[in-house]
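Q: what sequence does this backbone want?
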């Protein structure tokens, strides 16, 4: 193994290269400890649900395939009346905390252990994402806040466009935990020509 193919031994990706290629064109950060809740509005309750969520977190649940966030809380529309909400470092307790807040307006389930989520940044991240995902990720087409269900390689993923980070584009990519290694391989191999690095949160 070459010097630029260091192996990570402290995560579910143990045995896989933590760096591929030369440079830092693409940086992947695994979002550990994230609380994830699936929120589905009950019939006729979407407006009330949005009102309660906005009052508590200062974030309007998008009525479209988009993501909004404030502070450590984010929420993405994934279907009519259905959202995935996240909170940094909240773990499984996040979904439980939403139940008394939203009351009878929604069905809430904890998905904190269901997904692996990477935050992708770096000066070549857009080029790398365009290689492995069949979407137009040009900023005119895939703007900040956009959310799409798509493929990465042969893996079903959710892709979100975040606010730029240090002048570079930033994306978030979600995958079911059982497919995380396949996603990691697709991203790291697709980024090899630019230099790929996985780092801790």
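A:
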């Amino acid at each position: 193994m070459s010097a630029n193919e260091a192996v990570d031994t402290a995560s579910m990706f143990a045995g896989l290269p933590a760096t591929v290629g030369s440079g830092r064109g693409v940086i992947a950060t695994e979002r550990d400890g994230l609380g994830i809740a699936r929120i589905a509005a009950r019939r006729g309750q979407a407006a009330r649900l949005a009102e309660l969520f906005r009052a508590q977190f200062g974030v309007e649940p998008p009525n479209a395939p988009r993501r909004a966030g404030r502070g450590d809380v984010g929420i993405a529309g994934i279907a009519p009346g259905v959202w995935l909400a996240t909170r940094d470092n909240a773990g499984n307790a996040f979904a439980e905390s939403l139940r008394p807040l939203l009351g009878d307006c929604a069905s809430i389930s904890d998905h904190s252990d269901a997904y692996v989520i990477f935050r992708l940044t770096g000066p070549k991240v857009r080029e790398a994402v365009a290689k492995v995902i069949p979407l137009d990720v040009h900023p005119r087409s895939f703007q900040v806040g956009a959310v799409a269900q798509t493929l990465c390689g042969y893996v079903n993923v959710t892709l979100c466009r975040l606010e730029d980070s240090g002048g570079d584009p930033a994306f978030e990519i979600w995958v079911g935990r059982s497919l995380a290694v396949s996603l990691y391989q697709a991203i790291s191999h697709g980024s090899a020509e630019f230099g790929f690095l996985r780092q801790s949160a």
